[in-house]
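Re: Re: ligand-bound prediction request (bumping)

Still looking for help on this. To restate: I need the protein modeled with zinc ion bound, output as structure tokens. Inputs repeated here so nobody has to scroll up.
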Amino acid sequence: MGTEARYAEIFEAKISITVNFIIWLIRLIIGFTIGSIAILADAWHVISDVLTSIGVYVAGKIASKPADREHPYGHGRVAVLAELFISAVLVLVSLVIVYEVFYGIFITEFLHEIAFYGIFFVIATAIAKELMARWAVSLGKKSGSNLCIVDGLHHRLDALISLSISIALYIGIIFNIMVLDKLIALAVVAIIGFEAFKIAKNQ
Ligand SMILES: [Zn+2]
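Reply:
Sorry for the wait, this slipped through. Here it is.
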């Protein structure tokens, strides 16, 4: 792999981490404000992507270091531990969301009156992700980095997921089927669980 591709990947990881972190904050605030578990789950899905990017970043930096006296087999094992840790965090987050769906500890009421505005902001974050997807794909093509393209396509998939969640919530509000909020949250948990599984399986 060329140096240009390598630089592009590190740059893409940094941008991804920053943008996803901001999106996480926005969705967390919206989720708590309007009382939507689905939006909160979607917020945590973004954190799963932040952790994945950090994993890629750290793994790339550490695993490439040569073996030394303390690490006679190289630094690859640190990356393995980092990824297992990430998977564990995702599993924990998933469990908390499932618990929230059934027992409602943090969220007690869905506020219909302001939910429309909240969904508007969620759609805005989905558009931001789509823009990031386009940027990452073109960066990957220019620099010859497959990793950037793959990550870009992941951003696009996430944008589509958030858009679907927004539409479903909108329908739920209009027809007053609020159980949709919980069902969507469970679907997002399945996605997070799948990503955790993918990361763990890479070992
Ligand atoms: Zn994702």
